[in-house]
């Protein structure tokens, strides 16, 4: 296995991340589009002080998956809110 590939165990699902080819893309702007088939998230970055953004990633998912995503993200944010404020538990 390539040294850059870091296997991660998430419950019953194995995840492999190549840190050289899978960067973390910072966002300060998200545009969400939806229709009866699904949802598209355009993850964007603001460009300087101008009124422009650059799309750094586009993510599409079904409406059902989007509902699960919102539910899980909400629960994670509530669960970790106190830890982040106190600085006692830093997230990776």
Give the overall shape. extended
Task: State the order of secondary-structure elements, H for helix, E for strand.
Answer: EEEEEH
- The strand order across the widest sheet is 3-4-5
Instruction: Give the CA-CA distance, first to last residue.
Output: 23 Å
User: What structural category arises from helix and sheet content?
Assistant: alpha+beta
Strand count: 5
By oligomeric state, this entry counts as single chain
Number of H/I helices: 1
Biggest β-sheet: count, sense, barrel? 3 strands, antiparallel
Radius of gyration: 17 Å
Contiguous low-pLDDT stretches (5 residues minimum) are none
Strand content: 35-45%
Mean pLDDT: 84
Kindly state the percentage of residues in helix. 25-40%
Keywords:
92 residues, two-stranded antiparallel ribbon, 1 helix, extended, alpha+beta
Can you describe what's shown?
With 92 residues, this protein is of the alpha+beta class. The protein has a domain at 24-86. The protein is 26% helix and 40% strand. It is built from one helix and five strands. The strands form two sheets. Strands 3-4-5 form a three-stranded antiparallel beta sheet. The two termini are 23 Å apart. 0% of the residues are buried.
